[in-house]
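Milestone 3.1: sequence recovery, worked example.
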């Protein structure tokens, strides 16, 4: 389905157009959609920000991060773009914006305007900009959609205030809260993997699954952003949003259809079954300088408080109190300054009954979200030949070897901007879902950031994380294979998946 199915003309306005997010993510995503023929043929794209930029300077900035595409495609895309400088809290700039939009719509004879506003802005100005949009640029006789970026609040109270401020301005149908992890290919594939394969669907429960683990690893630290990160921490940065979204898709019940509200209904239902997070069932860490001294520790950043207990690594134990998942230990873990950058899901199944096998490995389904998307199932097989011994092998779907390099897999922001224009809310966060998630995490965050906050375990930059991690995972019923390393199949040479 292409954009042109929904109208040949539309206006896309990117607020915060001079900022890093717009430059590195939003505009490259719009170009990617244009390159693949997934934008309306007559689209008008306007950048809006406070910075006073010349048109050529603006176009040079945004095109610096475009991927693929021919010079001709870049040139044709830039012809669709323009830039307006103006304040966020005064009418003047919005009057110029409205004039530009109406001139475009009049030129194309558009009777029912379609306007998409992307707020690549900090949440402190969401309400101000939203109010000005509703007052000055709202498509009264057409469609208006507005994308807001995370963070959607800092805790439950601030999230509810933001919701209260936005609710009178835009309906839930018009609001799209973007969490880019919901646009990643392997995350979008979870529903099909779960419910489109009977051998998974039939075993996706406490009777067959021993443990679930979702891990997020970054091979770099805060890198000059320590002052900002110090008020955020790893739990708020990626766990309350990105990883929790993945977990709800992994654990929710089967929706009645792919209808966006049917999917989001099931996500909310399973969230309400989560047990309160236990502050005693967490592993906390903070990175120090690397063992060779080449990389600085978190506290070496001059913008960080010298006595900061900010958590740069966390592993959380999670329990879901419903019939499907009762008794299955779940671990979400995330950290910075580790040995590699990787996001993956590991679902370890229960061991087979004893009897003919004295020792045999557990089956494990691994879904690698990034880098190099892959799904592989670790299974036991007899070693070829006269031996009766078993060996751990795999059933492997690695995207790089299965699909042609020319096959377009949209990046997260490309997929989500396209979904927004098509009016598909499936991969966006609903208001009640946001509220339940903050209810779950706010007590833990208050504990971690309060006067009685525990001191995190120190781990060196470039390591696997806190030394207590292996023990923590074992206590949550995750069993490491004997060799400690899983060798990828020959179809993906020179790649290893470390457990």
């Amino acid at each position: 389905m292409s954009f042109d199915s929904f109208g040949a003309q539309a206006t896309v306005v990117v607020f915060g157009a001079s900022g890093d997010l717009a430059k590195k993510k939003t505009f490259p995503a719009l170009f990617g959609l244009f390159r693949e023929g997934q934008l309306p043929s007559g689209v008008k794209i306007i950048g809006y920000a406070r910075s006073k930029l010349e048109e050529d300077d603006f176009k040079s900035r945004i095109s610096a991060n475009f991927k693929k595409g021919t010079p001709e495609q870049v040139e044709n895309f830039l012809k669709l773009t323009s830039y307006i400088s103006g304040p966020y809290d005064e009418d003047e700039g919005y009057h110029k914006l409205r004039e530009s939009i109406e001139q475009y719509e009049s030129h194309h004879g558009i009777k029912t305007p379609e306007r998409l506003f992307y707020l690549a802005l900090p949440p402190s100005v969401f309400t101000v900009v939203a109010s000005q949009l509703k007052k000055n640029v709202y498509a009264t006789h057409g469609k208006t959609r507005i994308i807001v970026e995370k963070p959607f609040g800092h805790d439950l109270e601030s999230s509810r205030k933001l919701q209260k401020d936005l609710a009178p301005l835009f309906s839930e149908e018009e609001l799209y809260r973007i969490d880019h992890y919901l646009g990643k290919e392997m995350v979008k594939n979870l529903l099909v993997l779960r419910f489109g394969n009977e051998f998974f669907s039939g075993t996706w429960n406490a009777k067959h699954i021993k443990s679930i683990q979702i891990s997020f690893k970054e091979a770099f630290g805060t890198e000059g952003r320590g002052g900002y990160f110090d008020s955020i921490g790893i739990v708020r940065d990626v766990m309350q949003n990105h990883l929790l979204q993945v977990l709800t898709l992994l654990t929710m019940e089967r929706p009645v259809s792919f209808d966006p509200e049917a999917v989001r209904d099931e996500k909310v239902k399973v969230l309400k079954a989560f047990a309160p997070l236990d502050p005693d069932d967490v592993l906390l860490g903070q990175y120090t300088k690397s063992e060779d001294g080449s990389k600085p520790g978190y506290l070496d950043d001059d913008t960080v408080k010298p006595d900061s207990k900010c958590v740069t690594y966390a592993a959380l134990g999670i329990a879901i109190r419903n019939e499907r998942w009762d008794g299955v230990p779940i671990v979400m873990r995330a950290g910075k300054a580790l040995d590699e950058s990787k996001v993956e899901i590991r679902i370890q199944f229960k061991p087979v009954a004893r009897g003919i096998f004295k020792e045999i490995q557990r089956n494990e389904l691994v879904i690698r979200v990034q880098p190099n998307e892959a799904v592989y199932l670790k299974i036991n097989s007899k070693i070829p030949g006269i031996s009766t011994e078993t060996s751990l092998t795999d059933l492997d779907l690695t995207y790089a070897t299965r699909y042609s390099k020319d096959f377009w897999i949209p990046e997260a922001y490309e997929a989500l901007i396209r979904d927004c224009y098509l009016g598909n809310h499936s991969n966006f966060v609903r208001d009640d879902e946001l509220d339940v998630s903050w209810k779950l995490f706010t007590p833990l965050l208050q504990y971690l950031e309060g006067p009685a906050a525990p001191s995190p375990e120190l781990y060196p930059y470039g390591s696997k994380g806190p030394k207590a991690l292996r023990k923590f995972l074992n206590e949550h019923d995750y069993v490491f294979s004997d060799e400690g390393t899983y060798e990828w199949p020959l179809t993906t040479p020179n790649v290893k998946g470390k457990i």
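Residues 1-6, 483-499 have pLDDT under 50 and may be disordered. Residues 211 and 477 are 6 Å apart (CA to CA).
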